[in-house]
């Protein structure tokens, strides 16, 4: 008798021979994140600060060209404030990284709760179930850590994401070898 694959499983696992290559890419990307995790938060902060600085200069330019209208002064004020804050962030990227850390902590916390919420649907597939339960608990802990210690947490998130991708890739590779494409059907 052919096993019946729930539709929700198809969204999480790609169960065909092509997932072997996808799994290897996931493992490689995870290793790169682990290796370069100390540098990624600073780069994110610098790029965001530079983008905000460019947008602030554009707002100042638009405000100057719209002289005489009611929008001129507010645009210039917003541009000057944004430019000052972005210059401050460019000179001290840890400030930018700290704000990003808090937001990422909240997103990671929500991701952990959703993993734990959806794990009972995968009880028939033990590998997926253990991955979701273990990943959900670790994700909750990382989310709380990010909210409490945002600066140190950014490096932890990059390392965590790297480990997560490596494990996901290994599981995808195992599943691609064990289960041929024709064994899965939607209900």
UniProtKB/TrEMBL annotation:
The keyword 4Fe-4S does not apply. Signal peptide: none annotated. It comes from the Archaea. The keyword RNA-binding does not apply. Keywords: Membrane, Transmembrane, Transmembrane helix. It holds the Pfam family DUF308. The chain crosses the membrane at residues 21-40, 46-64, 71-91, 97-117, 129-148, 154-174. This is DUF308 domain-containing protein. It comes from Methanospirillum stamsii.
């Amino acid at each position: 008798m052919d096993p019946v694959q729930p539709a929700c499983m198809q969204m999480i696992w790609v169960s065909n021979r092509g997932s072997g290559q996808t799994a290897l890419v996931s493992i490689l990307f995870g290793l790169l994140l682990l290796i370069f995790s100390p540098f990624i938060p600073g780069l994110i902060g610098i790029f965001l600060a530079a983008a905000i600085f460019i947008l602030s200069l554009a707002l100042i330019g638009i405000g100057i060209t719209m002289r005489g209208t009611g929008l001129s002064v507010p645009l210039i004020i917003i541009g000057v404030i944004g430019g000052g804050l972005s210059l401050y962030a460019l000179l001290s990227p840890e400030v930018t990284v700290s704000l990003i850390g808090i937001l990422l902590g909240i997103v990671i916390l929500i991701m952990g709760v959703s993993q734990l919420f959806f794990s009972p649907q995968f009880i028939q597939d033990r590998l997926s179930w253990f991955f979701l339960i273990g990943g959900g608990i670790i994700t909750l802990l990382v989310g709380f850590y990010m909210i409490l210690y945002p600066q140190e947490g950014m490096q932890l998130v990059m390392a965590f994401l790297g480990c997560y991708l490596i494990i996901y890739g290994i599981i995808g590779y195992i599943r691609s070898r064990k289960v041929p494409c024709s064994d899965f059907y939607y209900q």
